[in-house]
Amino acid sequence: MLDFRPVLLVTGLALTVMALAMGIPAAVDAVHGDPDWLIFLASSGVTLFLGLLLAAANRTGSRKQFTIRQMFLLTVCGWTAASIAGAIPFAFSGLHLSSTDAWFEAVSGVTASGSTVLRGLGHLPPGILLWRALLQWLGGGAFLLMSVLVLPELSIGGMQMFRLESNTALGDRVMGRSFQVAGRMLVVYGVLTVVLTLLLWAAGMSRFPALLHAMSTISCGGFSTEDGSIGAWHKPAIDWVILAGMLISGAPFVIYLHMMQQRWGQVLRNTQLRWYLALFLLSALAIGLWLLLTHGVKPLPSIRHGAFTAASVLTGTGYATLDWGSWSGLPVAVLFFLSFVGGCAGSTAGGLKIFRLQILFTSARVQLTRLLRPHSVVLPTYERKPVPDQVRESVLGFLFVYCLSFAALSMLLGMVGLDFMSAITGAASALGNLGPGLTQAIGPMHGFTHMPDSAKWLLSVAMLYGRLEMFLLLVVFIPDFWKT
Amino acid sequence: MLDIRPVFFINGFLLLILAAAMAMPVFADLAAGQNEWPAFAAAAFCSVFIGLALIFSSRGKGEPVLHTREAFLLTVTSWVLISLLGALPFALGSLKMSIADAVFESVSGVTTTGSTVLHGLDHAPWAILMWRSMLNWLGGVGIIVTSVTLLPVLRIGGMQLFRMESSDKADHVKPRFSQVAWGVLGVYSLLTFLLVGCLLAAGMTPLQAICHAMSSLSTGGFSTSDQSLGAFGDGARWICVIGMILGGGSFTLYVAPWKRGQWGLFRDSQMRWYLLTMISFALLLTFWNWAVRDMGAYEALRSSFFNVVAVLTTTGFHTNDYDTWGGFAEIAFFMMAFVGGCTGSAAGGIKIFRYEVLFAMVRVHARRLLHPHGIFVIRFNDMAVSNLVLRSVLTFVMFYFFAFAGVSVLLSMTGLDDVTSLSAAAAALGNLGPGLGKVIGPGHDYGSIPQAAKWILAGGMMLGRLEVATVLILAFPGFWRE
Questions:
Q1: How confident is the model over B204-221, as pLDDT tens digits?
Q2: DSSP letter string over A343-364?
């Protein structure tokens, strides 16, 4: 029989964190004199009560490790509970959002996607704006934790390559070390947020938006405080700072730990980082050239806009300086495929992740060699380590399920009435936690306000599913999971 | 050392067959009393000349032996060579097609894609119409024989599952153009004759019947009318549906012996999934058309079945402009372009058996997540699938998606819009034919797209037809290294 207590304990802790976080917008609104502070305080009270209740009732006392099933279930429950809790303030605030809209906004925040149903962002009370950014920031941090503590242990989509020790058992020692690394990463995450805030402030944003944009950038989220996204500021300096922030948050966070310990060799040898930057440069170049040649943008701005758009889509942030949703032709094709790629493993970005592409390429090379020389023994390698068969299968299985989910989701979106391009780009963008799609209707400067409710539900579930790297959610639904 | 003599020899032999096939359109031309035959005579002369030159230049002592690398080279060169020479009649004939157009049309024919650059087919010379269908037919039988004899030995995309001899690591390629191949050829011709007969009975003229029989069984999709099968009655449409379904099924199974009182065809899981996929998509679209788009029940059933079968078997016929059926239909047709028919058929796409293997793998993978130390076996048709097969299937699918991404980005560089470039890439790689949208959707043709896009698409069709890896391997430095 599955022991649910640890699952409920972690869910309770997640709720408690959400409740404490709600205190911040409550305080800000109170200072600002906005009536929403009461809503935030009340939501915080309810969530805190539920969270503490769950946590206290399910304390086991023993320091026994979680079983595999418990880990699956607690991750799924934790994220779902956090999304529901995040929706409460939206639903009851002065915005009068429907429950669908509130849930959509919260999921889009927690999964760091950045699709929004809100318009007129510039006139919203500060509490709501802060809450949206906080959701993304917390979601980004949680995903970072998950990619160190949970995904490698559960062997999701080849993430077992990132186990800290080759030992497969969930030994105390390994877990201790993982917790240490995860803790350091969170510190880096916090420090980067502060640095980014200061830089944005220096670049000409006022303090409040600077903080919010820093939080949404570092989590690869993409909620802005203006309808026109970053383009509303018309300041190249801000564009460059955000661009750097997006690139930093899409890179593997391990390299920052190496940098702190001055192990520069490790940073330079990180092939995932190299691939990531190469892909970014290539697509930035393509889009920049396209802007230069067909839109008559001047050379320097075209470089800036090209790089910004490429980084925004590659890392799944979803910010925009130009409305890339209204483009057509070459950049749409490039951005569409980029939205599948996503950032690096061990970052806050979504999508397939660069390291999976690397493993795909190295297996492909090995396969071609095998075709010519059937008896040869060739091993695919990643970061100079051989890739075990099981990892290759996990990665390829991940890719297949990703494509399949994409196909199913876009057909469902078509059924609820979206047109071809909106459906396929919307599906790719939700699965990859990018946010906006590549058409006018759901582009980065338009929001999802006018989508049918059914489409909002489909997209929000897809975002959660994508953030949970699909298999975490899928496994819970196979009958084997519940068999004892 | 690469021994290219057998490659030359077999290519030469294939060109002689191509030249012989040019007799058919000449007959059609004489029957119509048009003046198209000089182009065909010239093309046949070229083919015979080059063919004989290749044969005589490679005559050596002993029987030609194919090793792995030569077999790869043979597969690719023969398809390219036949496509190029097949383009001659288009370029030399009265239509005066440009080189890009002629090559596009010919590649599209030989790869059984069926995208056309021609407009006004109803008034086109008979010989040209006949030659297009003939190319479909030859390409169809070519790919069936290749996928039965060569691909399994070359281990492309998990095709080793369908290998006939038991030894798994044979280095020596002996394409067994034997019993099975001859049997397949026989069945293919027989079915063509039957279809011609049925279509004649359904009221088509002899030319139309022959052309449609050839291009439906080969899942090619060249028609004699701009409206494709939309120009014909109910009888012809349903007969073509049957022809396409047969063309997308495994031909090896049609000649399979009776075992334990049962025909192999009915025991094959791939065949079952093939039909099941087809019926589910068709019913889904029937429902969509009937419930959401207010089509009459029979009309919805008829047009959904026809167009779904045409897309899933990668034929590319159409009866309606299914592009206007709304968002869901467009997306469904786009996704179907990636499915394809069975192995050992003339259909393109990723193919049903690979999906079966992938699904089985995902199931096993999900269970392994729960039981990290468990041992699970993936099965296909009650046989255990080895890791090697699994990996080549996975690699194939990956190559396919990368090729799709590459071709669509290249197409978008030529200035095509996004729907056109995405759907054209999918349709070319899957050897399907029509894409989606105002430019290349059903009922439109590829005549208006830029020249560069035509070349890219022709490359895409070739890549898809030869299962991607067969072509890619030639660009792999290891191939040319000793």
A1: 999 999 999 999 999 998
A2: S-TTSS--SS-HHHHHHHHHHH
